[in-house]
Design a protein that fits this description.
The protein is α/β, with parallel strands linked by helices. The chain has one domain: 3-Layer(aba) Sandwich (Rossmann fold). Helices cover 49% and strands 14% of the residues. The protein contains 10 helices and 7 strands. Strands 3-2-1-4-5-6-7 form a 7-stranded parallel β-sheet, with helices on both faces.
């Protein structure tokens, strides 16, 4: 256990790589100590790189798709201190037609992206409300604005997180706690490889820099914004179009990009 430095504390999930690692870096560079979590061994290397910013970093390797894993993270974090900022970022995707892909993969997605996010937020947010201070950042996605053929449960989970964030924001704003939804587009992370989407048009489009996405998210949280569409201007245009088009049209457009083999 690393000794605290008197700096505020940020808890970041899915922080071994990608947007999560860059979010953790933003917090570290702006004066926060860190608790970072992921299920893979890369979390220890991430912690080593983040310590260069001068704060304390506690790495917790745990499976946040399980109730026990979330409880372990909360318990380990409490040994460090009270959480001033929570970044709920851990998530996975599953690519392919729903009936052709493994049910267990979809259920694990729901367990991590939705159930684990709700469990962790409930445990941490309640303490923020009691203290009357804090901020929560949810990594949603521009995918939250449209149905997702071939990524059906992923898009649905991101829609859940966006709605969840907006609802919680209203509930806790009078208690001095801020809630923000981060909505990136395709980002240059390990997500597409892990989701099996490298052969899709969506997996092959030009992607945003995760460091820029993380900076947008951090700045939005610090500014108390309700949400931010991060990354390129194209992402903002896509969200604007999705808000005007019928769901059937946005679903068809997404399906053409996410269908397995579409990038061949």
């Amino acid at each position: 256990m690393h000794e605290r430095t008197g700096r505020p504390l940020a808890l970041v999930t899915g922080a071994s790589s990608g947007i999560g690692l860059e979010l953790a870096r933003q917090f570290a560079e702006h004066g926060y100590d860190l608790v970072i979590a992921a299920e893979d061994a890369e979390i220890d290397a991430a912690a080593s790189s983040l310590r260069a910013a001068g704060g304390a970093v506690e790495a917790v390797r745990t499976d946040l798709a399980t109730e026990a894993g979330v409880d372990e993270l909360v318990d380990r974090t409490r040994l460090v201190g009270a959480v001033d900022a929570l970044a709920v970022n851990a998530g996975v995707g599953v690519d392919g037609a729903f009936v052709d892909t493994e049910l267990t993969d979809h259920l694990r997605l729901v367990d991590l992206n939705v159930r684990g996010a709700v469990q962790l937020t409930r445990r941490v947010l309640a303490e923020m409300v009691e203290r009357g201070d804090g901020g929560v950042l949810f990594t949603s996605s521009i995918a939250a604005t449209m149905p997702g053929p071939y990524t059906s449960t992923y898009n649905a989970s991101k829609s859940f997180l966006r709605s969840f964030a907006e609802a919680l924001r209203v509930e806790v704003e009078d208690a001095g706690v801020s809630v923000t939804a981060l909505m990136p587009g395709p980002t240059d992370t390990e997500f597409f490889e892990r989701a099996g989407m490298e052969d899709t048009k969506l997996g092959q489009v030009r992607k945003d820099d995760p460091a820029e996405v993380a900076r947008d998210g951090f700045e939005a949280l610090m500014a108390g914004k309700d949400h931010v569409v991060a990354g390129s201007v194209k992402n903002k245009a896509q969200v604007a179009a999705a808000n005007l088009m019928p769901d059937r049209a946005t679903a068809a457009a997404h399906g053409a990009m996410a269908k397995p083999g579409s990038g061949s």
